[in-house]
Amino acid sequence: MTNTQSFLFPRNTATRSTISLDGIWQFKLDPNASGEENSWQNELEDSSPMTVPSSFNESIDDYDYAGDYWYEKKVTISNLLKSQRLVIRFGAVTHRATVFINGIEVGQHEGGFMPFSFDITDYVKFGYENTITVKGNNELSHTTLPTGQVFFDAAGVKRVRPYFDFFNYAGINRSVYLISEPQNTIRDYSTTYELKGDKSIVNYSINLSESDNDNLSLKVSLYDKNNNLVADSDGLSGKLSVSKAHNWSPDSPYLYKIVIQLTDNSTLIDEYIDFIGIRTIEVMGDKILLNGQSIYLKGFGRHEDSQAFGRGTNLAQQKQDFHLMKWMGANSFRTSHYPYSEEIYQLADEIGILIIDEGPFVGLQELSNPFLGSTGEIKEMFFDQPKTTTELLPYHIQMVKDLIDRDKNHPSVIMWSLFNEPDTSTDSAVPYFKKIFETAIESDPQKRPRTFTLYGKQGVTDSKTYQFADVIALNRYYGWYSEAGTNLSDAAVELHRDLDEWKNSHINKPLIFTEYGADTLNGYSSVNGEMWSAQFQQRYYALYHKIFDEYPFVKGEQLWNFADFKTTEGIMRVGGNSKGIFTRDRQPKPIVYDLKDRWTSLPNNYKANK
Ligand code: BDP
């Protein structure tokens, strides 16, 4: 029973074969959590079909179901796969999973947005039909990530109360693969970059699953877009020197192919192939520097959310979203509020979009907003509760490591977001933050800047933890949740007050807006520009942008949200959150054209000289 622990994306190479298990699986809810007792791991009777990848919620009667659920797929595994190790890999099962092969448990995984894999060689019958079964569960608690609560409604039915504003979609949300690979594998690799005029250096480092064999040797080769070899080197770590390298940037997303070969006395043991971009990212003073040049972020907070798929990988939707972003002159987004499907980062690498990569670190405060379902019964502040440090912190640390392990080789990833809107008002938050921020810098070979988003009015005067961020990120809703109303003058005063406070604090760091927005009911127009109307959304953004332009240290604007998205129902949510500038099916609200005008005229290096 081994979790192979490799986050490398499944690839077909000279030594590896990947077989997709996406498609139709069998599905069944288990409200009494009695499936295992009843041997459902052997045979899932009275099941119904379910497609993978997708969330099951849109395909069942009780879309709000909370508890255990089961998936099963019967598949004949070819004799041809016998000679190598066989691994099963799930892109994500939300929020936890136990996997069985032919009724025998092969492993468990906690966390709904990360890949996991198990070596199943000893559990399968080669040449015969095998039963793959997954017992999933979508419950939340104070010590899960994201956080939430389980309760029972008046009818005695178990429900989940998320401490976050997106629907708790669940199921096998991402692709499933069978991977045939050698026993001794290239387990991981990482790169860092040095841009030196005409020559760029790619420093690489490789990790093997077993390394105690003296006969083993490693070769690393780098190819350009035309498949010409541009550099190569030997050994577990080394330098690839590239003459006249094409640096990766949103305007020129040039990718090199890296081929890593493990040989034993010149016999090829393993080969892994990937794509990398040569670029540097750092913070200097109040600037974010990409390849040494100041970059201004224009874009969005988003969700993986689409009709029918729920939170399931929907690549066509993704491609359309990227097309719309580029068309509008945007250059970036944040993976609010969890790691997205791996294919999304691959597309961003290819298309040239910058990503602030956020883990599922949301809900680290018990909200009092009734629309988020909080009962207000928890009186102790989040970080004051002992289990936050004893139970959640170790798991959070592991999740930060895993996130960075999974995504560190993507040129598109330029920053880590380590919390969304935590409660930073108590002293007890400080040691927790310190650990999390240290973990990120220690885990990332590229030492990317780290951030987290500050909510409400939290800032210099009342946040005890803002100093940990390399880039200050604000989620602000002046004019919506506070100072609300058609007359936006109060909102303008507050936004100025806020930014003046940051200015006077002399933090000398870049500050970006990671959320600002107003719910807008598509099709609703108002001469007076009332809240919820298209005109309000336009006036709201016009105000924010005018003010952003007055402050040189504001180095980015990522509005909330790219598209309308599904949330838990509530008195402030009409079919979900309506702050999208596109509807859920990606029709533009009028604001889209204002933003397109602004962003296509703001260069990527806007405010470089300020
Ligand atoms: C912020 C959250 C985001 C919400 C947004 C909103 O970070 O998840 O969807 O507010 O209320 O507090 O629209």
Describe the structure.
The chain has 610 residues and is an alpha+beta fold. It folds into 3 domains: 17-181, Sandwich (Jelly Rolls), CATH 2.60.120.260; 186-276, Immunoglobulin-like, CATH 2.60.40; 294-601, TIM Barrel. Helix content is 17%, strand content 31%. The chain has helices at 315-327, 342-351, 386-407, 429-443, 489-504, 534-550, 591-601; strands at residues 17-20, 23-30, 48-52, 68-76, 85-90, 93-94, 96-101, 104-110, 116-119, 129-137, 148-152, 158-162, 171-172, 176-181, 186-196, 199-208, 216-223, 229-234, 237-243, 256-264, 267-276, 281-284, 287-290, 293-294, 297-301, 332-334, 354-358, 413-420, 450-454, 472-475, 511-515, 554-560. The strands form 8 sheets. Strands 25-26-27-28-29-30-31-32 form an 8-stranded parallel barrel, surrounded by 4 helices. Residues 165, 337, 420-421, 455, 475, 515, 560, 577, 579 line the site of beta-D-glucopyranuronic acid.
Task: Give the biggest sheet.
Answer: 8 strands, parallel, barrel
Give the termini distance in whole angstroms.
Answer: 57 Å
CATH superfamily of the largest domain: Glycosidases
Which ligands are bound? beta-D-glucopyranuronic acid
**Gyration radius from CA atoms, angstroms:** 24 Å
Uncertain spans: none
> What is the helical fraction, as a range of percent?
10-25%
